[in-house]
Amino acid sequence: MDMITKMVMERPVVIYSKSSCCMSHTIKTLLCDFGANPAVYELDEVSRGREIEQALLRFGCSPAVPAVFIGGELVGGANEVMSLHLNGSLIPMLKRAGALWV
């Protein structure tokens, strides 16, 4: 958990993903299209990826990927991010976190 906490505080937007996950790809594309420039950790490509995945599950992410943190706080997975986008709260949240300057 300490590892996750440290990693998510390093950037305004952090995505834990797997390179083979279509939902992870969708969320990465959405946030990048907004200009958020998230830190992306591909758990199937980074060392300690399995350990990070287990920590995300303990953190409450289910499924473990995609897991999106904005402003150091867990937002959730694809469903939660898309719900925020559809109800108009995702961009203001990104701005408050310092991920967007528009």
UniProtKB/TrEMBL annotation:
A single GO cellular-component term from the record reads:
cytoplasm
Q: Which PROSITE patterns match?
A: GLUTAREDOXIN_2
Q: Which UniProt keywords apply?
A: Cytoplasm, Redox-active center
Q: Tell me a GO biological process for this protein.
A: negative regulation of transcription by RNA polymerase II
Indicate the principal place this protein occupies in or around the cell. cytoplasm
Matching entries from Pfam families are given as:
Glutaredoxin
The residues covered by the Glutaredoxin domain are 13-75
Localization (cell): Cytoplasm
Query: Which Gene3D superfamilies does this one have?
Result: Glutaredoxin (3.40.30.10)
Q: Does the keyword Kinase apply?
A: no
Q: InterPro entries given for it?
A: GlrX-like_pln_2, Glutaredoxin, Glutaredoxin_subgr, Thioredoxin-like_sf
Q: What protein family does this chain belong to?
A: Belongs to the glutaredoxin family. CC-type subfamily.
| Protein name as catalogued | Glutaredoxin domain-containing protein
Q: To which species is this protein native? A: Arabis alpina
